[in-house]
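Extended Data, panel c. Modelled sequence:
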Amino acid sequence: MPDKKANIAVLVSGGGTNLQALIDAQRSGILKSGRIVLTISNRSDAYALNRARDAGIDTRVITKKDCGSAAEFERRIAEALDEYGIDLIVLAGFMSILSADFTRRFERRIINVHPSLIPSFCGEGFYGLHVHEAALKKGVKVTGATVHFVNEIPDGGEIIMQKAVRVRDGDTPEALQRRVMHAAEWKILPAAAEKICAEMIKDGRI
């Protein structure tokens, strides 16, 4: 069916700039094999929820505090994903590590964007500005972003797409973060989502 689309859920915790990149890509036709139908946040004050609502996307807030345990937290997320018939889960600044049970249940259906060229500056403790601080401290001349499948190891899944970004003399972590977002993250995340959705349709997995 030419009009068949994969249903996408985006999991967020903060400002939602990567969610916005996906919304913009959907509007412009870059993301055409999938549609964002649900945004889930583990924080009720995440600005990403406003971006989703402004784009007419359904939202859910599911917090560990309300759930009482990590297992119940993941159960409620999975329940929402099932309710919306989600084919692809995109982690876009989602600040919660998912268990092996969860990632196995959705094997090769969860993708994440990380602000470095994996395997550099990745794994537990490497998120947000920490990644860029580490890159500058090491003195690397090139950094970038990676989209990868999610498994039980933080930033350990198969790489789908990478884009390099040059480090400039005098860069601060904040300046480097902005450049990596603009030049890499916001480009490869929608492109990777489109690639995976198109493959799912081609392979008959949705």
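Helices lie at 17-28, 48-54, 64-67, 70-83, 100-105, 129-138, 173-202. This feature is highlighted in the accompanying rendering.
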